[in-house]
Amino acid sequence: METVKISIIGAGVVGLAIARELSDKINGDIVVFEKNESFGQETSSRNSEVVHAGIYYPKDSLKSKLCLLGNKLLYEFCKSKVIKYKNCGKIIVSTNEEEALQIKSIHEKAASIGVLGLTLLTKDDILKIEPQVYALNGIFSSTTGIIDSHGLMKILHEEAQNNGVMFAFGNEVVKIVKTSKGYAIETSKGEKILSEIVINAAGLYSDKIARITGFDVDALHYRLHFCKGDYFSISGATGMLHHLVYPVPHEKGYGLGVHATLDLEGCVRLGPDATYVDHIYYDVDDGKREAFYSAAKTYLPFLKEEQLMPDTSGMRPKLQGLNDGFRDFVIKEESDNGFPRFINLIGIESPGLTACLAIGEYVGDLISL
Ligand SMILES: Cc1cc2nc3c(=O)[nH]c(=O)nc-3n(C[C@H](O)[C@H](O)[C@H](O)COP(=O)(O)OP(=O)(O)OC[C@H]3O[C@@H](n4cnc5c(N)ncnc54)[C@H](O)[C@@H]3O)c2cc1C
How many CB atoms lie under 10 A from the CB of residue 302? Predict the structure, then answer.
């Protein structure tokens, strides 16, 4: 059987960032298995493309650490590689007295975990910078921005490939067997390879990859829940907003509330919302229009319901079930669970795009090459 040093399962933004990072350290001897015919066809191209500041993650969690570092690395990378981005900033806005009180505590908590560039805003401050937005008070985050996620993935793929990484597109990993020399991997095309190190970056299917390898997914709490996020575009609103505009988030933390995001052309989208579902599908139900309108109308008073059009959607690979508390990213070398040199990345939901380069570095540190 052919052998390879490292196999990466999944060519989303995370698998690509890991491939690029590792290919800088060893020349060649890395293969990336991807079930689709190209990279970045799943969650990595179905998101808000926001470079997050890291405001809501618990101190010392991987989400917090990798988001803070990833934010900095991503801007530097975009600048040096000429990937399109806009450091437009975001505002979090309150629209009632209860939320207005929460603004101060969100600001204090975020500042205490090391989030940079946060400023409290009064109603007048907000009117000056976003005249179309209604708010009682708010927070400005200067390190938040948007990027061209496809442009980012294209460069990561190109650089990894130039460093000798092999991409096996159209190859779904269907079997993984632990042997004394590593892991025997088999794909849907009948390809077989023996890999010294395996990195599971399979996004929505990462718990499935762990299961077929032999991990007790339930005992380890690696089972994923699917949480769908739908978007509605707003016609006729291009150029009306200059920052991303977020409400005060849901107290359970499933998502960040129906917010207004911008793309690099200034078009405005609402979403994503957060709905737990039992299978993966991407249709957006027009029946949600009223709920999106009501949520956003509170801070975007100019909105008319007929401006909202169903747009795209994405699926969050969540470790946190509907009634659970915060769950961190699982990014772990699995010797202690009986699978040495096997790295699981499970539950890489937001801020996975922001954190991708930091995740690449983190995984590089987990394995001795
Ligand atoms: C609605 C939504 C909005 C978001 N907004 C943001 C945001 O604004 N900012 C931010 O930082 N993050 C955001 N995120 C999170 C971010 O998109 C993800 O964290 C990131 O894209 C995860 O990348 P990934 O490579 O882990 O997963 P994916 O992009 O899902 O890639 C995994 C890859 O593995 C492949 N694969 C799976 N199984 C197999 C197999 N058996 N064999 C071979 N290949 C396989 C898949 O085909 C896929 O290409 C958002 C997510 C959602 C859902």
Answer: 14
- In the structure, what pLDDT confidence band is assigned to residue 253 with cuts at 50, 70 and 90? low
pLDDT tens digits for range 8-67 = 999 999 999 999 999 988 877 999 999 999 999 999 999 999 999 999 999 999 999 999
Domain boundaries, the chain: 3-46+150-222+326-366, 90-142+225-318
Ligand 1 contacts CB of residue 341 (under 6 A) = no
pLDDT given at position 1: 87
Q: For 3-46+150-222+326-366, CATH number?
A: 3.50.50.60
For residues 241 and 88, is the Cβ–Cβ distance under 8 A? Answer: no
Q: Before 272, cis peptide (omega within 30)? A: yes
Distance of CA 203 from the midpoint of ligand 1 (Å): 5
Q: Which of 232, 201, 246 is nearest to 95 (CA)?
A: 246
- CB of 192 closer than 8 Å to CB of 212: no
Is the bond into 351 cis (omega within 30 degrees of 0)? yes
Contact 343, 333 (CB under 8 A): yes
- Evaluate: CB of 350 within 6 angstroms of ligand 1: yes
Taking residue 36's Cβ as centre, other Cβ atoms within 10 Å add up to: 15
Average pLDDT, the chain: 96
Say if ligand 1 is within 6 A of residue 315 CB.
yes
Instruction: Provide CATH code, domain 90-142+225-318.
Output: 3.30.9.10
